[in-house]
Amino acid sequence: MLKIPQILVSKPVFCQVCKTLVLLCTLLTTSYTQAGDAAITDVKITALGDGNYQVSVTLLHADTGWDHYANRWDVLDEQGNLLGSRELLHPHVNEQPFTRSLRVAIPDSVKTVTIVASDSVHGDNEETVTVEVPKS
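RESULT FIELD:
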């Protein structure tokens, strides 16, 4: 018959093992969720004239490297038509949040645009940001 040493089944040791397991599970879950969808934290639109605008978007994403990083954001009109897309060609592991700009032609009939962020693992984020287009 196998005898388990009393020290291993005592309450303080058992509680410490449970605490360690809970902490480990929390750390693993947190590190996974931190590299989730790319979040849009700010959008600025500046009229340049002749129906052209500079759209500047600030993203926050826990880029981990080439395997998982924020890789694009799109500008859509009210009907969901693509007006412009800004490809992000590399991870921004040590630059968070970060802002990138794009020159976009926006028709006068468009009153608001929606920004959609994307990352290389999850694709398009369901949470979008809609902003008014300033008068040019």
